[in-house]
Design goal:
The chain is mostly helical. It is 59% helix and 8% strand. It is built from seven helices and three strands. The protein has a three-stranded antiparallel sheet with strand order 1-3-2. Helix 1 crosses helix 7.
Length: 157
């Protein structure tokens, strides 16, 4: 599923953003700065997992950190670029939830083995990438300041 969501991002010209970054970015946009521990608890993930995700997000210029209340903590904040992606990521999140619900309606309720086979067949008929893209319409992420237009992103999704 993550690979197909990443295909949606790539087809729309978004590079360097992994699907696993979406929920933390959305959460930080709605809550404001959080410590790694606070963010991990709010997402229902481990401190270690969130710390690793944040390292990738920092490399991509999506978040930054500042000293927390004491020397042991850091508060994570969105960069301008990270904040600018939130409307796109929220649209993708809603589209993905809708696409998954659509798949559930196509194949459920039934036995798990039958459901897996039916899910595979449904995805062969119409991939998750196509389902998400259709639900997102023409929504595209903003480009970082000074970025050149990539000819590949001008192609129809």
């Amino acid at each position: 599923m993550e690979a197909e969501i990443e295909e949606v991002y790539t087809a729309r010209g978004l590079r360097g953003v992994r699907p696993r970054y979406a929920y933390p970015l959305i959460r930080l946009a709605h809550t404001g700065p959080l410590t790694i521990r606070e963010l991990a608890e709010s997402l229902g993930h481990t401190h270690s997992a969130v710390s690793q995700t944040l390292a990738g997000m920092r490399r991509e210029g999506l978040v930054s950190s500042e000293p927390g209340a004491d020397a042991r903590t850091r508060r994570i904040t969105l960069t301008e670029h990270g904040r600018s992606l939130v409307p796109f990521l929220e649209a993708e999140w809603r589209a993905t939830e809708g696409a998954v619900a659509e798949l559930d309606d196509e194949v459920m309720p039934t036995a798990l083995s039958v459901a897996v086979t039916a899910m595979e067949a449904a995805l062969r008929r119409r991939s998750l990438t196509e389902r998400i893209s259709d639900r997102m319409g023409d929504v595209r992420p903003p480009q970082p300041p000074g970025a050149r237009a990539d000819p590949a992103t001008r192609a129809e999704v």
